């Protein structure tokens, strides 16, 4: 969609914040349109010419990025209000002016950069790994079906980008809820033949405060996941498994 | 009991993570540094798979055959003993990654499936969809997180390497690093240090590399006197999607699964790789395919619609098969180009992809600075003049398996614990780095550092990639020196002391320009054609003069110093060099019975 005022230009509004706790304000920029432009390329142009539409020289907006092909999870931001990766946000498919904002569910570090370290802490909490005896040569791994490999692969594509958490009404700085990304990891490891050996530990890690029962079933997560991971399915599976585990523990 | 040594590992891709794991298993404790959360390292971009001669397809494959393919594919520039060891370790590495939970594609019997890749006739590549690198990295990331919970690993994510700290005997005893947000500069003591910082793709501006692949850590090491080897060997991948911000890889696995490359010629599709190289067809090694595409597009003018692109066609393969085996890369193409590759051919063009060269290391992965190790793409050791597809994930993991225990062993031989090294060495290194950062912060000239980086990338891509001519290489070196003098006149528009990306970039750019000269002058001096290094004026491989490892070492002098060059012999004791051709079968060599 071309800019109404000048089809040769792209207008982008960036929410700026110098540091944590500092006030935020919007700055408006215009860069030259080219076909196949994405939000990253627009931000790269601003590094070379950080000047607002009013002609005011400013600093280049700060943002995180690495792979630029949607496998690393770095460049998460709100683009026209939607949580997504900036690399796959193509200018031709965006309504202008384009609004870029940092995620709201994480502390802002600077401009579009937020602190998502909490997500990695949650991976520790749910013990998202296969507890192997060691990395020395112990021969082949367990056999399993291609069907299971495909199911696990889909879950394993999670790049800890945080889009699902940004969209989740239950998740936020004032809530202990660990969110869909970590719950999906419980299912990922509990479906592996070796991971299943300590499935109960992972289930118990999401049975307390901030665990699976905090999910409000808004189903926003699955709609925004850039990798189309069946997050609600994972939540339902883990929910069922925790219920069974609770009953077993009671009876046992 | 003596105090445990701490190790420093810089870089959290496959090589750094495996080094960390193996070091922990050897009883060490590790401080792991990375500019990004390690889960976001560039290893995620590797798509097609990991090689290992598991021989589950009844093809008579063997580690020796894998070794022969790799050495032949590398045009006999690699020292052979470590390549053989890697190929012998490969089946075990693949089994290990499967045990760690990597969701490899399976056969009907529930075994791992293998596909074909370039430069071999065997199904030797294990894969997890078409994001194998991502999946392997996640598996190691998870194991390191486990060690982190156990207190054996401390992660320093968001820290960037500024240099090694050496004691009075020139032994590496720690590092200086800076936090990218708080801008704090600090020293960290260590019994040994490993650099696992990846390749230098950003020297070329746009490439298939992540934007974090500046090569800055390797360049800093070179400036500190560490030997840099075979810098001129840069792999250009034949198939990438052209883009404004980067050139996105379109995996070789697309051809491994039957993809065909073509252009229109005289009104008909011309499958030029199949015609030029009947023995290997679309699965010739990358340097060969890239040169063929350049020839067809630039010399013959046959690019699609007159543009610098060719077709990579999967549309003859059933969509369901493609989705299962190549889903991730098909998604990338559709997301960025808007076309469905199961229905229409993809438009692709070669792009800078990988550096075969890197820091010189011995067979224990130690650089020329004692106590400083290098692993993965940042080391030069395995791939010779051209890397075979799906050997990079393997070489990263293998290097980590060697380095972890080697670093532990190195520490045992130290007479002094790192905490007993006089603090004057650390204070001096710290002050030097703080002064440098402060100097950059105060720069207020007219030049924009991001613009300089763009110019560097354009020159390097135009003149120091697929086809190299000496006058153009010389002109590029002159240009880099011009950029260096303009760098002194950079202005930093951001004066802040918090997450100042302009300061970080300007600092990195200094080191990148130095490394760009190593690459360019290395190419200028090598008057032959070998693997990825191709000079039309010197079209043949010249073993008598150039079957040698290029060694660049920094020499002070003038404002910026310059690289000095020397040449080491290559260990070809296991397979006798033979001419490398892909129009006919490469033939084999026989493993000595000792193996």
Task: Sum up the structure in keywords.
heterodimer, A: 252 residues, alpha+beta, Ubiquitin-like (UB roll), Fumarate Reductase Iron-sulfur Protein, Chain B, domain 2, five-stranded mixed beta sheet, 8 helices, B: 595 residues, 36% helix, 18% strand
What's this, in brief?
The complex is a heterodimer of chains A (252) and B (595). Chain A folds into two domains: 9-114, Beta-grasp domain (Ubiquitin-like (UB roll), Roll), CATH 3.10.20; 117-251, Alpha-helical ferredoxin (Fumarate Reductase Iron-sulfur Protein, Chain B, domain 2, Orthogonal Bundle).
Account of the protein in words:
The complex is a heterodimer of chains A (about 250) and B (about 600). In chain A, helix 5 (about 180-190) crosses helix 8 (about 230-250). In chain A, the strands form 2 sheets. A 5-stranded mixed β-sheet of chain A has the order 2-1-5-3-4. Chain A has a two-stranded antiparallel sheet with strand order 6-7. The radius of gyration of chain A is 21 Å and the shape is elongated. Chain A starts with 8 loop residues before the first strand and ends with a helix. Helix content of chain A is about 30%, strand content about 15%. Chain A has 8 helices and 7 strands; from the N terminus they run ββαβββββααααααα. Chain B has about 600 residues and is an alpha+beta fold. Chain B has helices at about 15-25, 65-75, 80-100, 130-150, 215-225, 255, 270-275, 285-300, 320-335, 390-410, 425-440, 450-465, 470-485, 500-525, 545; strands spanning about 5-10, 30-35, 50, 115, 125, 155, 160-165, 170-180, 185-190, 190-195, 230, 235-240, 250, 260-265, 270, 310-315, 345-355, 360, 370-375, 550-555, 560-570. In chain B, the strands form 5 sheets. A 6-stranded antiparallel β-sheet of chain B has the order 13-12-17-16-14-15. In chain B, strands 6-2-1-10-19 form a 5-stranded parallel β-sheet. Chains A and B meet through helix 1, helix 2 and helix 3 of A and helix 1, helix 3, helix 4, strand 13 and helix 9 of B.
């Amino acid at each position: 969609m071309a800019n109404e005022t000048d089809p040769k230009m792209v207008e982008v509004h960036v929410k700026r914040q110098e540091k944590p706790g500092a006030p935020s304000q919007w700055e408006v920029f215009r860069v030259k349109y080219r076909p196949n432009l994405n939000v990253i390329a627009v931000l790269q142009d601003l590094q070379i010419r950080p000047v607002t539409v009013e002609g005011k020289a400013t600093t280049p907006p700060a943002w995180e990025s690495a792979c630029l092909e949607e496998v690393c999870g770095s460049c998460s931001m709100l683009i026209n209000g939607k949580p997504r990766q900036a690399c796959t946000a193509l200018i031709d498919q965006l309504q202008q002016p384009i609004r870029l904002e940092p995620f709201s569910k994480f502390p802002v570090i600077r401009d579009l950069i937020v602190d998502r370290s909490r997500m990695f802490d949650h991976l520790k909490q749910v013990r998202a790994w296969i507890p192997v005896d060691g990395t020395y040569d112990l021969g082949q791994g367990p056999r399993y079906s291609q069907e299971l490999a495909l199911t696990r692969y889909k879950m394993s594509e999670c790049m800890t980008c945080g889009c699902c958490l940004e969209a989740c009404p239950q998740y936020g700085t004032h809530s202990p809820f660990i969110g869909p990304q970590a719950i999906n990891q419980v299912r990922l490891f509990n479906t592996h033949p070796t991971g299943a050996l300590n499935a109960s530990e992972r289930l118990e890690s999401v049975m307390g405060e901030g665990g699976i029962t905090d999910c409000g079933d808004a189903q926003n997560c699955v709609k925004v996941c850039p990798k189309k991971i069946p997050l609600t399915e994972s939540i339902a599976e883990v929910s069922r498994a925790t219920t069974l585990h609770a009953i077993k523990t009671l009876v046992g | 009991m003596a105090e445990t040594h701490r190790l420093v590992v810089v870089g959290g891709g496959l090589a750094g993570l495996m080094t960390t794991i193996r070091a922990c298993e050897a009883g060490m404790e590790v401080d792991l540094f990375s500019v990004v959360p390690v889960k976001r390292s560039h290893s995620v971009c590797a798509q097609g798979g990991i090689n290992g001669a598991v021989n589950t397809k009844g093809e008579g494959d063997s580690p020796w055959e894998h070794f022969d393919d790799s050495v032949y594919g590398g045009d006999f520039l690699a020292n052979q003993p470590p390549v053989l060891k890697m190929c012998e370790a490969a089946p075990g590495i693949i089994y290990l990654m499967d045990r760690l939970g990597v969701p490899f594609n399976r056969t009907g019997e529930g075994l791992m499936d293998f596909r074909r890749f370039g430069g071999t006739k065997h199904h030797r590549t294990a894969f997890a969809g078409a994001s194998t690198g991502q999946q392997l990295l996640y598996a190691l990331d998870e194991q390191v997180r486990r060690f982190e919970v156990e207190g054996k690993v401390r992660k320093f994510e968001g820290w960037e390497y500024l240099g090694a700290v050496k004691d009075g005997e020139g032994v590496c005893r720690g590092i200086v690093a800076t936090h990218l947000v708080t801008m704090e500069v600090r020293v960290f003591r260590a019994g040994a240090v490993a650099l696992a910082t990846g390749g230098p793709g950003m020297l070329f501006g746009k490439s298939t590399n992540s934007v974090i692949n500046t090569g800055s850590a390797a360049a800093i090491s070179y400036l500190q006197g560490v030997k840099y080897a075979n810098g001129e060997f840069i792999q250009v991948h034949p198939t990438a999607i052209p883009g404004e911000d980067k050139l996105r890889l379109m995996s070789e696995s697309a051809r491994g699964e039957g993809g065909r490359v073509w252009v229109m010629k005289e009104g008909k599709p011309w499958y030029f790789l199949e015609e030029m190289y009947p023995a290997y067809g679309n699965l010739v090694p990358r340097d060969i395919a890239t040169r063929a595409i350049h020839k067809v597009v630039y010399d013959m003018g046959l690019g699609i619609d007159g543009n610098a692109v060719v077709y990579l066609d999967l549309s003859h393969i059933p969509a369901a098969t493609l989705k299962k085996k190549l889903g991730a890369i098909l998604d990338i193409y559709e997301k960025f180009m808007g076309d469905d590759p199961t229905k229409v051919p993809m438009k692709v063009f070669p792009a800078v992809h990988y550096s075969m060269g890197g820091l010189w290391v011995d067979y224990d992965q130690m650089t020329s600075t004692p106590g400083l190790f290098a692993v993965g793409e940042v080391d030069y050791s395995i791939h010779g003049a051209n890397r075979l597809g799906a050997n990079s994930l393997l070489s990263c993991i293998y290097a980590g398996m060697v380095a972890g225990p080697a670093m532990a062993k190195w520490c045992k031989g130290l007479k002094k614990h790192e905490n007993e090294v006089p603090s004057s060495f650390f204070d001096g290194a710290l002050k030097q780095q703080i002064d440098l950062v402060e100097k950059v912060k105060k720069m207020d000239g007219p030049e924009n550092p991001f613009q300089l980086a763009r110019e560097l990338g354009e020159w390097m891509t135009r003149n120091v990639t697929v086809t190299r001519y000496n006058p153009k290489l010389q002109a590029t070196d002159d240009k880099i020196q011009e950029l260096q003098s303009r760098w002194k006149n950079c202005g930093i528009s951001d004066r802040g002391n918090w997450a100042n990306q302009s300061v970080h970039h300007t600092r990195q750019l200094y080191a990148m320009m130095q490394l760009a000269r190593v690459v360019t002058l290395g190419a200028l001096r090598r008057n032959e054609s070998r693997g990825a290094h191709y000079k039309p004026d010197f079209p043949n491989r010249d073993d008598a003069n150039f079957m040698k490892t290029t060694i660049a070492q920094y020499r002070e002098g003038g404002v910026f110093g310059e690289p000095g060059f020397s040449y080491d012999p290559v260990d070809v004791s296991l397979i006798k060099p033979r001419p490398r051709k892909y129009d006919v079968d490469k033939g084999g060599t026989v493993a000595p019975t000792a193996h």
